[in-house]
Amino acid sequence: CRKRRRSFPSHLVASSREVFLVFNILKSDQCQTCPYSNVITMFATGEGILAQKDAVTPDGLQQVFATNLFGHFLLVRELEPVLCHAGRTSLLVWTSSSNAHHSAFNLEDMEHRTGTQPYSSSKYATDLLSLALNQHYNKQGLYSSVICPGFVMTNLTYGILPSFPAFLMRTTTQKCSPTRLLSRLITEQKPESLDPYAKYHSLTSGLGNSYTRPHKMNITLETSETLHVKLLQLEREMRTKLCQREKETQTAGRLQKT
Questions:
Q1: DSSP class of residue 122?
Q2: Gene3D superfamilies, from UniProt (predicted)?
Q3: Residue 69 pLDDT
C-alpha cells in the first residue's frame, strides 16, 4: 500500500522506545479491490520515555522532546495521506500523562533545553498539540484526542514500592494497557463527539472496576496554535538539514570514486 514514501531520519520518526498501535489497516491484498485502501481509522502514539537526565540526539534535538513529541508529530505528518480522507473519520490518540504540568512547559523553550522536567514538559506539549491538530484537521475527517492510562502496576512499579503498599494498590490501580482505554473511546463515543479540551483518564474504583473519566486540560487555543507553528518551522529546518546532508554524502561518494 505504500507506493509513496518520503525519507526522514528513522531515529526521529520512530525512536527505538517509541511504540505505536494501528488498528483497522486494510491488508495489502485488498489494496487493488477495496476503494478505501491506504486508510487508517485509528492511530495511537506510544508512551515515550521517562528520563531522569535528558540528552541531545545526533540531530541536535533534546532526546525526550524528540521521542515523546516531535517524532510523533513527524510521523503524523507523514501519515496524513492515510489519516485524512473526505467522508471517513480517523482518530488520532495521544498517550499523555497526569504529570503533564503547565508550569514545566515554556513556549520559548519547547525542547526544554534549560529546564529540569523534560518529561512533564513534553507531555504538556502533547496536550497542546492535540488541540491544534483538531483545529487544522477536523474538516478533513481526522480527530485528535488525549488519554492518560493512569497508574499501572508493572514489574517496574513493584521494584519501586514496598511489598505491602504494592499489594494494596494492586486492587485499586490499572491492570490494563492503554489499548483497552482506546477501545472504550472507540466503542462508547464517536471521534467527533470527544472533547478536544479534555484528557480521558483511565481509572479504577476501590472494588477494582475500571472506568474512563474526562478531565479538562489546562491549555489554551492560542498557545497550542503557536506551538504548532513552531513545530512546523522545526520540521522545515530538519528537512533542509537532511537534504543538505544527503547532498554532502553524494558529493563525498563521487569524490571517492574519482
A1: H
A2: NAD(P)-binding Rossmann-like Domain
A3: 94
CATH (domain of 16): 3.40.50
Amino acid found at 94: W
Give start and end residues of each alpha helix (H) in the chain: 10-13, 63-65, 71-78, 80-83, 118-137, 155-160, 163-169, 178-188, 221-257
- Which residue segment(s) compose the domain that 40 sits in? 10-150+178-201+221-252
Which of 119, 143, 197, 200 is the catalytic position?
Answer: 119
Confidence of residue 209 (pLDDT cuts 50, 70, 90): confident
- Is there a domain that residue 51 lies in? yes
Contact assessment for residue 129 and residue 224, using Cβ atoms and an 8 Å cutoff: yes
- Range ranked top by mean pLDDT from 22-26, 40-44, 244-248: 244-248
pTM metric for this prediction: 0.74
Q: Does the residue 71 lie in any domain?
A: yes
With H, G, I as helix, E, B as strand and everything else as coil, classify residue 88: coil
Residue 253 CA to its chain's centroid (Å): 37
Whether 211 is covered by a domain: the verdict is no
* Phi, psi at 146, each rounded to 5°: -120, 135
**Active-site annotation holds for 137:** no
Among 106, 88, 85, 105, which Cα is nearest to 96's? 105
Q: Assess contact for 120 and 101: CB atoms under 8 A.
A: yes
Q: Is residue 23 part of a domain?
A: yes
The grid cell for 60 is: 541536535
